[in-house]
Amino acid sequence: MDNAILITGFNGEIGRQTLLSLSKKEIPIIALDINESDIKYNNVVYIKDSILNQSVITSIFNDYNIIEVYHFAALLSQSANNNPELAHEVNEEGSQLIINSAMSHGIKNESFIKIFFPSSIAVYGPRKLKNAKELDIIKPQTIYGCNKLAIEQFGTQRHEESIELGFGIDFRCLRFPGIISPYTIPSGGTTDFAPQMLHAAYNNERYTCKVDSATTLPFLGIKNAVEAILQIMVIPNIDSKLRAFNVQETNLNPKEIIAELQKEFPKFIVDYDIDSKFQSIADTWPENLNCDEATKKWNFVNNQNKNIIFEEYLIPEIKKHYGKH
Ligand code: SER
Question: Helix (H, G, I), strand (E, B), or coil: what is residue 289?
């Protein structure tokens, strides 16, 4: 049986760029998503189905020797709030199914299956922390944050059981802040205002922001987000009970984002129409993350510079991206 990598939710913002990077490896990739793919890579087997379909998950693990799993399929924070039952099913039950299937596969093959799980700043709360560390107060105030925390804990527990058994899963997790991608315009999240503003500014569109101008949140460009995923997965052994690590590039509020964007797009205009569904969530998420653990474990670089992410990455890259279309 061939070794293979499983990626779920590959059509999402992070999944899409991770699949692009993984597709460069010389190993078959099984890519599962509820939506059809619009890009086809040669070494990828595409499966259009739900992570809740147990028989599909079982047959993937029966048909391939899965050695790594990247599990992105999820509802984001606002979508989860709008549909809590579906969020519980997809974000928790679906993730448990993937973790348990990988664990059984590892035990059967007497090996450890590496699993990457994207957690979120949504695990923090109830009040806005500064320089939040992994073990600071984590009392999530949203369905989405509760789902993420439940899976961090479930995966960590399965990881501990695997160590005891000598086989099973090797669970690895990053707590992502808001992700900014020059390639896609996200929806369904609370941190979406940052990438949405970037795309609106480039496209000469006026933007209405749903959180107030001083709402500061941590962010990470998609390139460094994918880089962090590849880095945490390549470490042979993370010798630590801590399985979920903070990563961020810088922290920003709408006012600062607008100032950065207006340097390049001086006509960019933003109106505010505060939506309590967004504001009340953003107010429980940290202002910035302490990334010392990630720096210790794999030299994660957290440069903190608010200009660099725009000037050296997002603006040149969005121009290249739209230039192509
Ligand atoms: N970016 C996500 C959201 O806003 C948080 O992880 O829902």
Answer: strand
User: CATH class for domain 3-178+220-246?
Assistant: alpha beta
String of DSSP letters for 121-154: GGG-BSS--SSB-TTS-B---SHHHHHHHHHHHH
Q: Is the pLDDT of residue 304 over 80?
A: no
Summarised one tens digit per residue, pLDDT across range 180-205 is 999 999 999 999 999 999 999 999 99
Determine if the pTM surpasses 0.85.
Answer: yes
Q: Average per-residue pLDDT in the chain?
A: 96
- CA 60 to centroid of ligand 1, rounded, Å: 29
Q: Where are the domains of the chain?
A: 3-178+220-246, 179-219+250-286+304-323
Question: Which structure tokens are listed for 192?
Answer: 């979406």
Class assignment of domain 179-219+250-286+304-323?
alpha beta
| Ligand 1: residue whose CA is nearest its atom 6 | 120
120 CB less than 6 Å from ligand 1? yes
